[in-house]
Every structure is written in structure tokens, then in C-alpha cells.
Amino acid sequence: TTTREQVLSYIERRGLSHRIDSSNLEPDTRRNFLRLEVLPRIREGMNPAVREALLREAAMFREADAYLTEEAGRALPGIIRAREKGKIALDAAILQHYPRLLRKYLFRCALQELNGEILDLSTAHIDALLSLLMSHTGRSADIPMGIRARRERETVVLERRDIESEPAEAPSKA
Predict the structure, then answer these.
(1) 59-85 CB burial, b ≥16 within 10 A, e <16
(2) Three-state SS for 89?
(3) Which residues, at least 6 apart from 158, have a Cβ–Cβ distance to it below 8 Å?
(4) From 44, 53, 65, 147, which residue has the greatest number of CB atoms within 10 Å?
(5) Which tens digits make up the pLDDT trace of 6-64?
(6) Angle CA 160–161–167, to nearest 5
(7) In angstroms, rounded to a whole number, what is the distance separating the alpha carbons of residues 59 and 78?
């Protein structure tokens, strides 16, 4: 990773001009507060290499996230009970056999398959989905992106509210 100092040094050596975004110098936003206040204090008082340590940890988390996303993608077809346009039903009993962390990724994967994106998904939404696994028929949770999740007998159903459910096309026997 290239540091800010390395970029500024490169610009100076080449005699290039650059602009400074003044909003980056204001500690009002969380990102700037961390960058301008918290990290320098940690660097000075605890760990001069805090930036490098955080970069290493971030790389490890990205790797773990990629692995768990891939594992969830492999496992998802085995827990889908039914699929229709705008609707996916997941087998709750099979889902419960997976470790809690992988269940979170399975829900994320199912929501992404259903909706194409999961940008507004938070930990609270995933926790709501996990609680549906242990609940009785009839309980539901609203998830961003216009999705309602509900418990129906042995399944957790994820359904887009903007699409009327239609039977999916039967697979061809060719």
C-alpha cells in the first residue's frame, strides 16, 4: 500500500501540482476524526506501526470474508427449498446445522441472489434473520431493499415486496 507521504514525496520530486480537499482536514466526520486524532495518538503513545498493523489485519479480514462468502455460495443451493421470482425459501433445519458465522453469510448470499445487492444490510438485520430460525411460523422481519423475511413452518422465506411471486420456470429436461 502506498502511503500519503510517499505520494506527496513523488509529487514533490516530479514538480507536480496537487490539490488538498479541505474537508479532509476537518475532524467532524468519523473517518477524519480517526485519521486526524485517534491514529496519531495511538502511533505516538502505543504503537508507531499501528497503520501497518491495521493494514495487515484488514487484509486478513478481507481474506476471511472472501473465504466465507465462497463457502456460503457453495452451501446455498443445498438449503434452498423453493425459488420463485422475487422469493427464496430456505430450509431452517439445514441452516441451523451450520455454524452461526456461516449462517450469517448464507443469509447474505441468499439476499444478494434475491436482490442483486446488499449495500444497506446491517448486523441488526442479519440478527433479525437469525432470530427467525428459532422462532415459530408467522414471525417476520423487514429487511432493507424492500425485502420481507418470515418464518413459514420449516422454512425462512425471503421475499421482495415489489415483485408478485410467480412460479419459477421448471428446469428443462434436455
Answers:
(1) eeeeeeeeebeeebeebbeebeeebbe
(2) strand
(3) 87, 88, 89, 90, 110, 111, 114, 143, 147, 148, 149
(4) 147
(5) 888 898 899 888 888 777 777 777 778 888 888 889 999 999 999 889 999 999 999 99
(6) 60
(7) 30
